[in-house]
């Protein structure tokens, strides 16, 4: 049977036993090609002490500072991804409360209007409303309108006396109001 060297391009023939004995790494280094740079010399073995110290502080090959940065980035991403839906939820909840309050007010108004409708179904109530609002008088009745003087304390007493009408044109009064002059 032919070795791996023959499969790659026919550069040489090796026996199956010698190729099987050598590890893959050594076989590759043994035959440098002109297209590949020469293999680096093997590095000296390090002691196990410093490597253990590094691995204690590093999880997944990251130092403590990098882990903190990754953790802060993840926390910020989670906070931002939760912030928008939370804000939407809170605003919708306040909108729901406003709509429920408005609905309660409208239901109260509907009940009030239902009662008013029932009252106006009575012909006597319609007649009383026509007399009060429209001042209707039945045939044969004599209507009386009583007006009290302003000093008597009637409805006209609470009104302030009217200001006298100025003798000047409206544009002159406007100009006087803008400039602050009085004539």
TrEMBL record:
Keywords of the record: Cell cycle, Cell division
Entry's Gene Ontology BP terms: cell division
Annotated InterPro entries: FtsL/DivIC
Disordered, as annotated region: 1-55, 145-166
Domain of life, per lineage: Bacteria
Coiled coil residues, start to end: none
Biased composition regions of type Basic and acidic residues, renumbered to the chain: 1-23
Name of the protein in its database record: Cell division protein FtsB
Database matches in Pfam families: DivIC
């Amino acid at each position: 049977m032919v070795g791996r060297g023959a499969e790659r391009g026919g550069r040489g023939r090796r026996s199956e036993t010698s190729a099987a004995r050598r590890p893959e790494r050594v076989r590759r280094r043994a035959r440098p090609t002109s297209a590949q740079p020469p293999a680096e010399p093997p590095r000296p073995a390090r002691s196990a002490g410093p490597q253990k110290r590094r691995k204690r502080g590093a999880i997944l090959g990251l130092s403590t500072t990098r882990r903190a940065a990754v953790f802060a980035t993840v926390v910020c991403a989670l906070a931002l991804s939760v912030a928008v839906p939370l804000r939407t939820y809170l605003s919708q909840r306040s909108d729901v409360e406003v709509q429920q309050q408005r609905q309660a007010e409208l239901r109260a108004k509907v009940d009030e209007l239902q009662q008013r409708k029932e009252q106006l179904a009575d012909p006597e109530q319609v007649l009383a409303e026509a007399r009060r609002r429209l001042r209707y008088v039945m045939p044969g009745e004599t209507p009386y309108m009583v007006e009290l003087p302003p000093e008597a304390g009637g409805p006209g007493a609470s009104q302030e006396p009217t200001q006298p009408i100025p003798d000047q044109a409206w544009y002159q009064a406007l100009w006087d109001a803008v400039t602050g002059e009085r004539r």
